[in-house]
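Tutorial, part two.
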Amino acid sequence: MAASKYAVESIGTFFLVGAIGLTTIDPGGAGAWAPAAIAATLIAMIYAGGHISGAHYNPAVTAAVTIRGKCFLADAIPYIVAQCVGAAAAAFLVLYLKSGAKIEPRTYVPIPALIAEALFTFAMVFVILNVATAKANANNSHYGVSIGMIVLGGMLCVGPISGAVFNPAVALAFGLWGMVNWADLGPHLFGQFLGAIVAAIAFKMFVKE
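Running the prediction step on this input gives:
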């Protein structure tokens, strides 16, 4: 059963990262619809894997769900490894499918990028914890759409500021693609984990179960 959970985390992250790369690396056919295509893929994969693994597909989410008490620490590290494996596999497949594409590293101003990543990772994780883990919302049917919509909103709001990554596994793919220099990913990763941890603390403060 544990192996199934890890496999689903890898598969879901694979398709999320694949959607990001295929729509944002030129030639990308989605154009201005890229955020919608990414959000739609995420929503579908959440519904597909939520009942098996919780559909984290994001190491920052796994960290927050562990703090919240809905993921065992023994599962957290394998989840994160599975997510990173899925992200790396998707990244290399995208590079193969987009062979010949000219990828220029994007430069983001560190402090604004950190703030943007922290704010919208917080928002995303706060939504996830409330719609997918709170007893008051148990067995609801809107959790996947809610999560996809906050990610879509974040992409549209801060895409130019930080790239709207919100996910360390996606950051790994950005580095493998050469879309962001490895040395420039520090603010993204710090902001993502900071936002996720604060969201978990806020959830535990506000939601009494």
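The chain has eight helices and no strands. In part three we will examine how such features are distributed along the chain.
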